[in-house]
Write a structure and sequence with these properties.
The chain contains three helices and two strands. By secondary structure, it is mainly α. Helix 1 packs parallel to helix 3 and helix 2 packs antiparallel against helix 3.
Length: 118
């Protein structure tokens, strides 16, 4: 039951993140008062998030190819889940990594779309 609650919250958070980004895109380059619309992040944040996104995407691809992933939690530091031995934990961590990659990628997309929308 806890996993159903966890995944439902992740989907709800993703929907809220999507709606927030769409609202920013709909505002356009300038808002109602003529002021520039702020993106989800500034230039330095864009570089930082891009770096984190590349690392997470590399980890995701590495885990798919090697069929093993390190545990992403505090309580299981250093433990490695393999697809053959721990399939449920492997896919749970893969889903979390994919969710982070999609969320950060969407934030970069919204920011660049606002910056170059004229």
């Amino acid at each position: 039951m806890r996993q159903v609650f966890y995944y439902a919250l992740m989907l709800l958070l993703g929907f809220a993140w999507y709606r927030f980004g769409q609202r920013l895109i709909r505002k356009g380059y300038r808002d109602e008062r003529g002021e520039l619309t702020e993106g989800m992040m500034g230039p330095l944040g864009l570089l930082l998030v891009s770096g984190v996104l590349c690392v997470l995407f590399f980890s995701l691809l590495r885990a798919l190819i090697r069929r093993e992933i390190q545990c992403l939690g505090k309580g299981c530091h250093g433990q490695i889940y393999t697809l053959a031995a721990h399939a449920a934990d492997y896919w749970a961590n893969m889903f979390f990594l994919l969710w982070m990659v999609l969320g950060l990628g969407y934030a970069i997309y919204v920011t660049l779309k606002i910056w170059f929308l004229r």
